[in-house]
Amino acid sequence: MYGAPALALPVPQLTVTAVARWSSRGTEGPGDVSFTMTGAPSRPMVAQASDGLRRLITAFTATLGTDDGPHLDVTVDSAVPPGRGLGSSAACARAVVHALADLHGREVTESETFDLVQTAENVAHGRSSGVDARAVGALSPLRFHRGEVQELSIGCHGLFVIADSGVVGRTKDAVKLLREGFQQHDGAEERFVRRASWLTEAARHALAAGRPEELGSRLTDYHDLLRAHGLSTRGIDDLVEAALTAGSLGAKITGGGLGGCVIALTRPERARDVVQDLQAAGAVQTWVVPLRGPADHVL
């Protein structure tokens, strides 16, 4: 946000599957595409996602030099709730890239995949930072800064509990709110970025050094920073407080702001209590993600 670094956590429990196939039912000729998206996203979200994926398909054809068929049917089955700061649009776009590659019998590099996902993300978000496009294909937590990524060194063991508030985040409104606040006070943007950057780097060092209490504190401090700038909501704050009361080491809002999810760092022995208290505080869904490095994952 505003040039500050970010730490991103992949969530392997939330998967997306896409299937692309040729069909003869289209009437508009080569390049005609239809989408089917499972779940119950709102019509505006489906329309927005379809716009981005159409742009992605056009870019895929141009990048890999593939031919258009008579009609393309794309089905996307996503377990990632949209608009919650969990990278739903990027995850769907990545799945579609690989579905198209399978359809055409082509290999796509990670660099090509990222560029194609960004094509869709820039439609969805205006100007995407790229953090979601990187994180949805990652096997371990990442540090992201100005387009560059690095795998994080992990010296802590614990769990992240993610709680869905059930409220769609409003990234564009949040960015506008933050920008307007910066314009009202000289030096506000610089102070925000300096504080956000310090908290992120302090969290990274705590993660590497095996200091979970400090890592948790930095999460909560970051939430307090975002809340002070109006980017949280009463419901999100209630979830953060519930996680802390239940014994989490720290918690913060995740995503663009004004809704979405809370992520809480928790010791394994406290996870059950944290999940129960988050649900009692209004979470509509929760997921538990072990804190792991790339060596802990089985390919």
Automatic annotation (TrEMBL):
<comment type="pathway">
    <text>Isoprenoid biosynthesis; isopentenyl diphosphate biosynthesis via mevalonate pathway; isopentenyl diphosphate from (R)-mevalonate: step 1/3.</text>
</comment>
<dbReference type="Pfam" id="PF00288">
    <property type="entry name" value="GHMP_kinases_N"/>
</dbReference>
<dbReference type="InterPro" id="IPR006205">
    <property type="entry name" value="Mev_gal_kin"/>
</dbReference>
<keyword id="KW-0443">Lipid metabolism</keyword>
<keyword id="KW-0808">Transferase</keyword>
<keyword id="KW-0547">Nucleotide-binding</keyword>
<dbReference type="InterPro" id="IPR020568">
    <property type="entry name" value="Ribosomal_Su5_D2-typ_SF"/>
</dbReference>
<keyword id="KW-0444">Lipid biosynthesis</keyword>
<dbReference type="InterPro" id="IPR013750">
    <property type="entry name" value="GHMP_kinase_C_dom"/>
</dbReference>
<feature type="domain" description="GHMP kinase C-terminal">
    <location>
        <begin position="204"/>
        <end position="282"/>
    </location>
</feature>
<protein>
    <recommendedName>
        <fullName>mevalonate kinase</fullName>
        <ecNumber>2.7.1.36</ecNumber>
    </recommendedName>
</protein>
<keyword id="KW-0418">Kinase</keyword>
<comment type="similarity">
    <text>Belongs to the GHMP kinase family. Mevalonate kinase subfamily.</text>
</comment>
<dbReference type="Pfam" id="PF08544">
    <property type="entry name" value="GHMP_kinases_C"/>
</dbReference>
<dbReference type="InterPro" id="IPR014721">
    <property type="entry name" value="Ribsml_uS5_D2-typ_fold_subgr"/>
</dbReference>
<dbReference type="GO" id="GO:0005524">
    <property type="term" value="F:ATP binding"/>
</dbReference>
<dbReference type="GO" id="GO:0019287">
    <property type="term" value="P:isopentenyl diphosphate biosynthetic process, mevalonate pathway"/>
</dbReference>
<feature type="domain" description="GHMP kinase N-terminal">
    <location>
        <begin position="58"/>
        <end position="133"/>
    </location>
</feature>
<keyword id="KW-0963">Cytoplasm</keyword>
<dbReference type="InterPro" id="IPR036554">
    <property type="entry name" value="GHMP_kinase_C_sf"/>
</dbReference>
<dbReference type="GO" id="GO:0005829">
    <property type="term" value="C:cytosol"/>
</dbReference>
<keyword id="KW-0460">Magnesium</keyword>
<dbReference type="InterPro" id="IPR006203">
    <property type="entry name" value="GHMP_knse_ATP-bd_CS"/>
</dbReference>
<dbReference type="InterPro" id="IPR006204">
    <property type="entry name" value="GHMP_kinase_N_dom"/>
</dbReference>
<keyword id="KW-0067">ATP-binding</keyword>
<dbReference type="GO" id="GO:0004496">
    <property type="term" value="F:mevalonate kinase activity"/>
</dbReference>
